[in-house]
Amino acid sequence: MRRLLRRQDPAEIAGEVAAAGAAPPPSADPDLTAAAFFDVDNTMIRGASIYHFARGLASRGLFTTGDLVKFAFGQAMFRVRGNENPEHVAKAKEMALAFVAGLKVEEVVTLGEEIYDEVMADRIWSGARALAQAHLDAGQRVWLVTATPVELAQVIARRLGLTGALGTVAETADGAYTGRLVGDLLHGPAKAEAIRALARVEGLDLSRCSAYSDSANDLPMLSIVGHPYAINPDSELREHAREQGWQVRDFRTGRKATMIGLPVAAAAGAVAGGIAAGIALRRHYRSH
After folding, report:
1. What are the φ/ψ torsions at residue 146 (nearest 5 degrees)?
2. CA 57, 261, 75, 99: dihedral to nearest 10 degrees?
């Protein structure tokens, strides 16, 4: 019996060929026990991410410059080198949480997506992005680790094609912020604890992992991995890296600066920007 052969339509053939040509090359075999951790502010992005977020809100007319200056000045008690006064930290958190209580998480995420594309995308350090991509190409997972609110950190991670983000977590109920933190600000030693916890869950061997930061505040995070890197380092981290034989990468040009675009520590920017965002969104809700 003669077999009937199906004659494929030329358009169908063209479509299949085009699709095959567009298929990405095979990815590297997963390396499940090694990963990379990147600080965000001045490591992955120029300046403080929450400051850029606040600028995006300001461009929408959601708060005044006076509001931002007032609250940012109040957070300047956070110093560049991590000697925060516990009483001051507690007061800063209390102020921030008072303003975010009741705000909708989805609204913050939506604004974060928009503002990343408008303000932040062009401020990503291409060198740091390339380092992260090299880990991905090697089959390793890459997480951001930052004091920035986790919702904004996750937006940045998604836009960069990274695995995910560890950030400061605010408690939520029914889709809104309650005004309490889950734990504490993800800053200094808290970053190291977050990485250790993630390593336990994901089965990571920290001796095979890498970490990248610009600040001596992140020495706890850098010190727990087998491959620490100083990126655009402040003077204290640069000196420590030199003493320890750590690799240093500096993607800045021209005058060296500890911080670019924001003369306050990253933790200060995170809290101040969070307060500014809270003011802005609260006014937004009240007007609707």
Report:
1. -155, 155
2. 10
pLDDT tens figures, 32-54? 999 999 999 999 999 888 778 87
> For residues 182 and 169, is the Cβ–Cβ distance under 8 A?
yes
Please say if the pLDDT value at position 113 is more than 90: yes
125 Cβ partners below 8 Å, 6+ apart?
43, 44, 45, 46, 231, 232, 251
Phi, psi of 56 (to 5 degrees): -65, -40
Helix (H) or strand (E) holding 141: strand 141-149
| Parallel, antiparallel or unpaired: strands 210-213 and 227-231 | parallel
- 146-175 burial: b if 16+ Cβ within 10 Å, else e: bbbbbbbbbbbbeebebbebbbbbbeeeee
**DSSP character for 217?**
G
User: Catalytic site residues?
Assistant: 39, 41
Closest CA to 67 of 80, 78, 76, 58: 58
AA identity, residue 57: L
Token pair in block for residue 4: 């009937």
CB–CB of 157/145 below 8 Å?
Answer: no
Selection from 43, 55, 39, 37 nearest residue 116 by Cα: 55
Lowest mean per-residue pLDDT among 17-31, 119-133, 154-168 = 17-31
pTM of the model: 0.76
CA dist list (Å): 165 to 13, 29, 146 = 42, 22, 8
Return the DSSP state at 255.
S
- For residues 154 and 126, is the Cβ–Cβ distance under 8 A? no
**CA distance from start to end of the chain:** 74
